[in-house]
Structures are given as C-alpha cells and as structure tokens.
Design a protein that fits this description.
The protein is mostly helical. The protein has 17 helices and six strands. The strands form three sheets. Strands 1-2 form a two-stranded antiparallel ribbon. The chain has a two-stranded antiparallel sheet with strand order 3-4. A two-stranded antiparallel ribbon has the order 5-6.
C-alpha cells in the first residue's frame, strides 16, 4: 500500500493507547484488512484457517463501528489532518468490502472532502517541501481512481479531477512497483474523462461514434502487452481495462452508435464477446489467488462483463461447432469464477444465475440451474447498491432495444409455420448502465424471440 509509511505506522502503533487519531487509524486499517479475502484467523491450535465470510463480516463491522464511535468523539472536520483522510478512506474500503455501497460512497466522499480541505488537489501545496508530500500525492491519485470506478459503476457525479502531477518514481523507492501500478490505473481512468462522465450520468448529447471508437482505441493501447508487475496487480489492471471497454460499449449502445454493418470492431454489436474472450484468456493464466485478493471490487467487474455478454448472446446468432473459445465457454467460465471467488458467498452468484435463467433459459441446464429462482427483480431491490433500476440513466428505453432482432439459430433453421403469440412476459434483468434489459420469451412454436 503506497500510502502508508512503515516507520510512521510503527510509531502510530506505540501511540494507540494515548492518541485518538492513532487508535482510529489502526482501527480503520484493521477493519479493511480483516475483510480481505486472504485474511486468516488463528485457531486455538495455532493452525490458520480461512474464516467464513459471514464471521469475517461481523468482525469487520464491529471494528468499523468502534472506530467510528471514537472518531466521531473529537472534532476532526474543522482542522483535518492527513491521518483523518486515511481513516475515512480505509473506512470506505471496509464498507465496500462489506457490500454496503452507500456507506462506502459516503466515507469515500468524506475522504475526498477532507483531502480538498488540505489542498491535496492543488499542485501549489506540494511545492512547500512538506515531509508528507509524497504520501499526499499518492493518496490523492488513489482517491481519484477509487471515485472514478465507483462513480462509473453507480452513476455518481465526480468531485476529483486530474489537477496534480503523478507521484515521482526514484530508483531507490521501496514502493516502485506499487506506484507504477497506481499510475497505470490512473492512466486507464483518465481516458474515461470528465466529458464521458457527464454524458454517462446525464444525457446523450455530445456523443459520436468517432469519439466513442477513439476511447476504445485508447483503452486498447493503454497497457503494454507485457506488464512488469506482480500477478495480483496485473489481474487488477487487465480486468479493469476490459471492464472500462464494456462501459464505453454500453454508452455506444445507449447512444445508438452501434451498427451491424460497421467495419470498426469497437462499434459492433458483438464486441462484448471479444472482450469476454480476452477475460477468459487473462483469468485462465492467472492464479485464483491473484484474482481473489481484490475481493468484491473485481467480482463486480466480472459480473458486469458477464451480464453484458448474456445480453448480447440473447440477441445475436451464436457460432456452433467450432474449436475456438466461444461465448458459451466464456459464460461458463464467468459463472465458475464468480461462484469460486469469496467462497461463492457473494450475492453476485445468485444474481448471475438468475439472469441466466431469465435471459438464456435454454442454457440454464448447463449450469445446473434447475430449481425455480426467486424473482430476480425482488433480489435486486432487496440488495443495497443494486445494479438494476427501472429506468436508464438517460431516462430512455431499454439499452438493448437498440440491438437488432437477430433470429436465434433454432428459429432460423426452422420451417415451422406456427403462429408466434407470446405466452409469457419477460422479466427485467440487469445491465451495467442500470436499464432494464429483457431476455428471451418462449412462444407456442417452441422458439424464443427477443422483446425489449
């Protein structure tokens, strides 16, 4: 973690019983650490074992509540310090790990506000030779990428902008690898600039296929083919890169910029299949631990990509009898990944399975999804920070309504003249942009059609 100094933290540990700030910082860090997927608890026999997710959640929540109780007991708002920014950030990260999206956003915004009060967004404040200048600069950019990722996922406005220089790398820097990874992450999110964020959250004006295609091209070229970094860092960078491509593709869909005759792969209806194949290749060569260590954040990104893949699979004809990895293989891989990560106890397992049932019912048997699920829309509304809503961010029709009505392979090969009267209405399922997306509807002729 490039925002913590080892010597400073050792000093803070000695002050935990005498200084309130020290107690709160250690409490916030511990709450963040305990929620990490690779955290182990020592048993009475001194043999480590992985805690159940439920028990870890309870431990984390107790630490958060106690830290907040003490932190709110003194006035840290009028005269904030760097330590207060760190406390708010780690509390936000802990709440995010607890899947409490609103609480995570509130504390992230608190950290950003405290950072702004300290002038961390102003390059001039770093010219004073402050001993904490390097830490402040790194923390600013960490807040920057955290806010951008959350804001894109939940359609929130932005408060931080790229107003200062990147951290400086030196040959003897002990955090060189971590800082390099942070800069790569910043480069990715800076492509999704303030203009994109404004359009993503409000209206579709200023959108053009040329602009969107250029964003995709920049994302494609943002990372080198070979990353000289630890495996876990590569997992975060590679998956985030592909997720951002899906975000831009969703914008292209909602803006009506896609075309079935486009020669630009970025502007095609099947581009999410290409992204999914890359995710398949990336995650297949990485160890499970490299993905697991990132917790719920990476699971959410994989879930978003999987849901977009399902939407595309329900609308376009799929290739069969091929030896290459196809969309069905990718979907099976996504399901296996999400079902394995975090001991399979993430809420996204049920949400993904529900979407498969509702959108691709003929594929449900491949995932052993034979039991009747609870209504998907009820599952979504009961969960805090759900990805689904009843309208799109543009107050427009369903995102997938702009996709062409390709017949399914089964329907295309059928000579049946039976009438196609619908026998059931489709259920709304999630999309990355928050719009309801409808899946396949069974008809009396035994085929399936797509209705928005």
């Amino acid at each position: 973690m490039p925002i913590l100094d080892q010597g400073r933290m050792e000093q803070t540990m000695t002050e935990i019983d005498t200084k309130t700030e020290a107690f709160c910082l250690i409490g916030a860090i511990c709450s963040f650490v305990v929620i990490q997927p690779d955290f182990h608890v020592q048993t009475a026999g001194d043999r480590p074992r992985t805690s159940s997710v439920r028990r870890v959640f309870a431990q984390c929540l107790r630490l958060v509540e106690e830290t907040l109780r003490v932190w709110n007991g003194y006035d840290h708002k009028d005269t904030p310090t760097l330590t207060d920014v760190l406390i708010a950030f780690f509390l936000s990260a802990a709440y995010f790990g607890l899947e409490k999206a609103n609480a995570a956003w509130i504390h992230l915004r608190e950290a950003i506000t405290l950072a702004q009060l300290l002038g961390m967004h102003d390059e001039a404040t770093y010219q004073r030779g402050d001993v904490d200048g390097d830490i402040r600069r790194r923390l600013f950019w960490l807040l920057y990428v955290s806010e951008r990722g959350y804001a894109l996922h939940k359609h929130r406005p932005l408060a931080l902008h790229a107003t200062i220089e990147y951290p400086v790398l030196t040959e003897d820097s002990t955090d060189a690898v971590a800082i390099t990874g942070l800069i790569c992450l910043c480069n990715l999110f800076r492509i999704i600039d303030d203009t994109f964020s404004r359009v993503w959250n409000t209206a579709r004006s200023e959108c053009s296929s040329i602009w969107l295609s250029d964003l995709q091209r920049q994302l494609e070229e943002a990372l080198p083919e070979e990353l000289n970094c630890p495996e876990a860092q590569e997992a975060d960078l590679r998956i985030t890169q592909q997720w951002l491509k899906i975000v831009v593709w969703q914008m292209s869909t909602a803006s009506g910029c896609l075309s079935s005759t486009s020669t630009d792969a970025f502007m095609s209806f099947t581009y999410p299949i290409d992204v999914s194949k890359k995710i398949f290749a990336i995650t297949s060569r990485l160890s499970p631990q490299a993905i697991e260590v990132h917790g719920i954040g990476l699971i959410e990104k994989l879930f978003d990509i999987a849901c977009t893949l399902i939407d595309v699979m329900s609308c376009v004809p799929l290739e069969t009898a091929t030896f290459e990895v196809g969309p069905r293989d990718c979907l099976v891989h996504f399901h296996r990944l999400i079902s394995t990560l975090r001991q399979g106890e993430s809420r996204y397992v049920a949400l993904l399975e529900g979407k498969i049932r509702d959108t691709l019912p003929t594929m449900a048997s491949a995932f052993a999804l034979s039991l009747p699920p609870a209504p998907l829309e009820r599952m979504l509304t009961q969960e805090e920070g759900s990805l689904s809503s009843n309208s799109s961010p543009y107050n427009s029709p369903s995102l997938m309504s702009s996709l062409p009505r390709f017949p399914t392979l089964q329907a295309a090969s059928s000579n049946s003249s039976a009438t196609t009267q619908p026998v059931a209405l489709p259920l709304p399922v999630t999309s990355l942009a928050g719009a309801p997306v409808y899946g396949c509807v069974p008809f009396q002729d035994g085929h399936h059609r797509i209705f928005p």
